[in-house]
Design brief:
610 residues; alpha+beta; four-stranded antiparallel β-sheet; 11 helices; 36 strands; 21% helix
Length: 610
């Protein structure tokens, strides 16, 4: 066996070519002067590619070790079984129940009409006995693409929520170029905010009110990206991570809190809160009463309240107080020598704005006084059962209740922790407990009793709270069930990330059968050219105490999903950005897959029945 090549920092040993190559970092050049061979070499020996290769090798080694241990257990059980037979040669054979064909096809009767329906395809003889077992159906029946009347066609957008045929989306416009910032960007739609897309009616419902700002020319409406420059010194950020779209569905209304950020160094948050009536299909803007409620409560918190006010951009908000003046009064003020130019201009602008009909209840204007540097920002948020939760980077958590019938905000509360909340954290709420994933630990907050606990992990790629006693934790290499009461973990399987930052995991709820499943896209060497390999896990094999429910291990199925758009070569740059649980259709699980071209900022949506 040849000796293992020595590791040289900054170089990679290619075993197939038998030599070292320099590791490259940064962007890969694609200019005309770069030949295809050079581009291939740069890609192959790029740091990301090398890290992906190392993860593939580690995963293969781990798979071999798991297979070895599994075979060892099988051989041991086999040996014990053979010894039992040898010691008890006269053990009677088990009684075999005579197979009855109708046991497997109870839903099918062989009359003339049924035979005709079977021949024409109206009856599926396979599906008749697989309908109640999702895993068996996934084994024997390929995922079916939704077409024709079942096909969902979405506009170019990002998706933030879904329930009962309604999507919460942020639309993307045509690609443009910003010569000031020297980068291309998508022109956000004129509303600059989230919208509701109804797939049944194929209509988009838009929030009506825009933001307003006060400049030297008076009160102006902010409807486009450029309108934000006079006050904030930049436009709305085009970075997806700078948007906080927090939504909650109930049978009557959709509550939608949007927090956008400016793209400059001193990123400023801009909030909007709307309630969408799901019966009348119209928005009610409640941004003003929410801001008024928050500023009132922040004022009582003194220094900490000031930090939270800055984190939400409320220090830029000014409540308007219109004083109606007559024409004679304004003329007298303009001709007075005792009034300076700035005051005359402001009074005139207020007078014209009042009579022109633009009288917003609040406006954005540059804060007065000395600039204060406060490092605090809104990181994550959640709406659960008409209760709002916002989590900030400095560790504060605020909550309040909202009654959509009376349109009133009440019960403001502040919770403080000594923990920093990093970018990329996530949040879930179940019962009276808040679960915050900081990518290295899980913080739980019993908000009724103000009790905080922490659970440390090495790394958390994804967290799902199945119930208060059972969590799903996806770490760097494995998927496991975690029991917080005993801090015990049970490994379900190892998986290969392949250094893929876009790998997606999602829980699928089968509400009809009261079952839960996990689906994720397979990364690494096992991915084919269309990237259509998925794994589908049955999470119903464990009870809340960590015991198996009649199975040796969780059942796992490999799914092959044929995406229509990937048949065309010019869509090869599209990557999976989101998996969406769409409920159930025709007795099968309905799952949506949202793909995005990160460079061109285009999106494609397809859904399948599993």
């Amino acid at each position: 066996m040849p000796p293992t090549p020595a590791e040289i920092p900054g170089y990679y040993f290619d075993t197939t070519r038998g030599r070292y190559f320099k590791v490259t970092n940064g962007a890969i050049p694609t200019t005309n002067s770069t030949t295809p061979t050079e581009t291939t070499n740069l890609t192959k020996y790029h740091n990301n590619s090398i890290q992906a290769e190392k993860r593939n090798q580690d995963f293969e080694q781990e798979e071999l070790e798991e297979l070895r241990l599994e075979n060892k257990v099988k051989n041991k059980n086999k040996k014990q079984h053979s010894q039992d037979i040898y010691k008890n040669p006269k053990v009677p054979k088990p009684n075999k129940k005579k197979f009855d064909f109708n046991d497997r096809n109870q839903k099918f009767t062989f009359d003339n009409l049924s035979l005709l329906n079977l021949k024409t395809g109206q009856i599926n003889s396979i599906g008749s006995y697989l309908n109640d077992n999702v895993m068996n159906r996934a084994k024997f029946i390929s995922p079916k693409r939704c077409v024709d009347e079942n096909k969902i066609i979405l506009p170019q957008c990002h998706i933030y929520g879904y329930e009962d045929s309604e999507f919460v989306i942020l639309r993307l416009g045509p690609l443009a170029y910003d010569f000031d910032e020297l980068e291309s960007f998508n022109v956000i739609n004129g509303n600059i905010g989230a919208e509701v897309f109804d797939t049944k009616r194929e209509r988009i419902y838009t929030q009506k009110q825009h933001w307003y700002c006060k400049t030297v020319t008076g009160i102006n409406e902010m409807t486009t990206r450029a309108d934000f420059y006079p006050i904030f010194g930049s436009g709305i950020s085009n970075n997806d991570s700078d948007f906080r779209i927090i939504c909650s569905f109930n049978p009557q209304v959709l509550q939608l809190l949007s927090v956008l950020r400016t793209s400059n160094f001193d990123s400023v948050s801009i909030i909007r809160f709307n309630v969408f009536n799901r019966h009348t299909n119209d928005f009610t803007d409640l941004t003003f009463p929410l801001i008024k409620f928050l500023k009132f409560n922040f004022k009582k918190l003194h220094k900490r309240g000031k930090s939270l006010e800055h984190a939400l951009g409320l220090h830029y908000v000014e409540f308007t107080n219109y004083q109606k003046k007559s024409i004679d009064e304004i003329n007298k003020l303009l001709t007075s020598k005792n009034v300076n130019h700035r005051k005359r201009t402001n009074e005139l602008n207020d007078f014209l704005s009042y009579h022109d009909g633009i009288r917003p209840e609040f406006i954005y204007s540059k804060p007065k006084g000395k600039k204060v540097d406060i490092e605090n920002s809104l990181e994550i948020g959640k709406i659960f059962d008409n209760k709002f939760f916002l989590v900030f980077s400095a560790g504060e958590i605020i909550s309040w209740d909202f009654d959509y019938k009376t349109k009133k905000f009440t019960n403001f509360r502040l919770y403080t922790t000594s923990l920093k909340i990093p970018v990329g954290s996530s949040i879930e709420v179940l019962g009276s407990t808040l679960y915050i994933n900081t990518n290295s630990q899980v913080i739980t907050l019993d908000y009724e009793n103000s009790k905080i606990q922490t659970y440390k992990f090495g790394f958390i790629r994804k967290m799902f709270i199945l119930n208060s006693k059972k969590w799903i934790i996806v770490d760097k290499k494995s998927i496991q069930i975690f029991y917080p009461a005993t801090k015990k973990s049970i490994k379900i399987l190892s998986y290969n990330n392949g250094n893929d930052v876009n790998q997606q995991f999602e829980i699928i709820n089968d509400k009809k059968r009261d079952k839960i499943y996990l689906i994720f896209n397979v990364a690494g060497k096992t991915t084919d050219e269309n990237g259509k390999n998925y794994k589908f896990l049955d999470l119903n094999s464990f009870d809340d105490a960590g015991n198996y429910n009649g199975h040796n291990k969780s059942e796992i199925i490999d799914l092959k999903i044929d995406f229509q758009f990937l048949k065309y070569g010019y869509f090869k740059d599209f990557i999976l950005s989101k998996i969406i649980d769409l409920g159930e259709k025709d007795g099968r699980l309905h799952i949506g897959f949202h793909h995005e071209d990160k460079k061109a900022k285009n999106t494609i949506f397809e859904s399948f029945l599993i």
